[in-house]
Amino acid sequence: MKRVAAKRGAVKRFLLIGKSGVGKSSFVNATFGVQLASWCQFEPCTKLVESYARTTEFGDVCLIDTPGFADDSRETDCKYLILVNSELAKNNIDVLMFFSRLDDKRFRGEDKEVLRLISVGLDKSVWNNAWLVFTFCAKVSLDVLDKSAAKRKVEMETYLKNLLENNAWRGFKMCILMDNVTPNWHPSASVITKVLNSD
Fold first, then answer.
1. Bridge partners, 61 (sequence order)
2. What is the mean pLDDT for each group of 10 consecutive residues in the chain (199 residues)?
3. Which CATH number covers residue 100?
């Protein structure tokens, strides 16, 4: 894949979605190298849709942090969908980033529920440029890391194709393996702002 810096002044907007506790808010902080988004270790912190825009050496980036789904109740999830749809009505996004913990051994019901919620509750066009982000990768042994990620990616894409009822959907355009907590967790790790500004 060709990687180029974003044009100066063109802000690339990313919508961060996933269940509660997958590391969306800590991803914001890790990306920009400063604590912008609040996060809690033992309970969900993000209750609103928050945008964080910064100029980086590779281009201008806006990360849109959303509350974690599938944590409280269906009523809460519906409220969160309204907030996300309100943000999408005001501003277009360039990329939907779906977050999932790779240290979860299986493709669990909560991830399935979040995929179902956003497939039903958001415009289907959000899947046109969707990336998959696996977090907590430092907790997975390096010798099975790629195999585990590839297996889970296929499981999620198969599930999503059925949800979207769209055999033309080609799957996630990018799969990112990362760890927000452990520095230098992988010998070939890239700077995330460079990855975000790739085409």
1. 12, 54
2. 40 93 88 74 64 87 91 87 92 94 89 92 91 94 94 95 84 92 81 78
3. 3.40.50.300
Exposure letters 72-111 (e unless 16+ CB within 10 A, then b): eeeebbeebbeebeebbeeeebebbbbbbbbebeebeebb
pLDDT reported for residue 105: 81
Two structure tokens written together for 76 = 């809460």
Tell me, yes or no, whether 48 lies in a domain. yes
32 and 51 Cβ atoms separated by less than 8 Å: no
Q: Do the beta carbons of residue 38 and residue 89 sit within 8 Å?
A: no
Q: For residue 4, what pLDDT is reported?
A: 32
* Domain extent for 36: 11-196
Distance, CA of 199 to CA of 194 (rounded, Å) = 10
Closest C-alpha among 159, 45, 22 to residue 102: 22
Which residue in 117, 198, 133 sits closest to 172, CA to CA? 133
Reading the block at residue 185, the tokens are: 């967790």
What total number of domains does the chain contain?
A: 1
Nearest CA among 123, 111, 94, 199 for reference residue 152: 111
Dihedral angle at the C-alpha atoms of 121, 124, 127, 128, nearest 10 degrees?
-160
**Is the residue at 124 inside a domain?**
yes
In a domain, 4, yes or no: no
Instruction: Please report whether residue 58 resides in a domain.
Output: yes
pLDDT value at residue 143:
93
